[in-house]
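At this stage, I needed to go through a protein sequence along with its fold in token form, as given directly below:
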Amino acid sequence: MGKPVVYGADYSVYVRIVRLVLEEKGVGYELVPVDIFAADGIPGWYFEHQPFGRIPAFEHDGFRLYETGAIARYVDEAFGGPALQPVEARPRARLNQITGLLDAYAYRTMVW
């Protein structure tokens, strides 16, 4: 398998989440800087990776993905290393619930 590519800015909490997941799994990756707040705007080529112009985007062996949760789950399931999600349905559902709550209700308070 080839080395995954993460597209985004190192200051983004969502890009950091993907990078932390890759680090925890022991997966080498390339970070391609994309600054969606640049004065010139979002680079046109980036919309091929993320149609909404958000960060991060991800590519692995020609497979493209966006949205932090989807990327994190893919990395956990596609690569060796320690499992980052519970295997059983109820604990896994609770993990997804907490993640969703933090993203929907706590992001602004915690990050801004």
The chain has a mean pLDDT of 95.
